[in-house]
Amino acid sequence: MRMNVYKLSILSLLVSTLFSPAHAEELSPVTIFGSQDESSIAGSAHYISDEEMKRNNYTDSERIMRRIPGVYSQTEDGYGLRTNLGMRGTTALRTTKINILEDGVPQGPAIYSNGSMYFYPDAGRMYSVEVLKGAAAIGNGPRTTAGTINYISRPIPTAQSEGYLSQSFGDDGYSRSHTYYGGNIGSIGYVV
Questions:
Q1: Whole-prediction pTM value?
Q2: Domain residue extents for the chain
Q3: What is the DSSP string of 22-64?
């Protein structure tokens, strides 16, 4: 028995040296590039840019989604913090049939078993929004019966520092502020 353990350890040592970095083959880099023709997307796709959100003063998801045909919302709190969205004939109950993504990452608490959204990405800090309806949404994960909404967060500025400030005031002491500032310090980028 002791001899078998010794033989196995020698054999595993020899096999591991075969796969060591000294025997590794250097591969040439692979570059992947391509483009997508918007007219080839099955279903429909909508893109809301940062400029459009600032120009129209979109501060919550309900206001953003109102401009997209086939998307409707049911107000729950009046401030757009808990958005209930429906698309293409699905109910707007907790956005159960729509896949909500932030930077391509699913945002639901249990997307395979319970599609209800109890947390919703803050639209004020988003850079843009992509909305896919129909067959175009299938490749984005579960719960895409109605479609997919992908919120894209603000990128870190690369050329120069930039900032933004927006304040809203209303009745009964209502106030809302949205601000960001970003830039680079050497090779480190930041957005606050």
A1: 0.70
A2: 41-153, 162-191
A3: GGPPPPPP--------GGG-SSEEEEE-HHHHHHTT--SHHHH
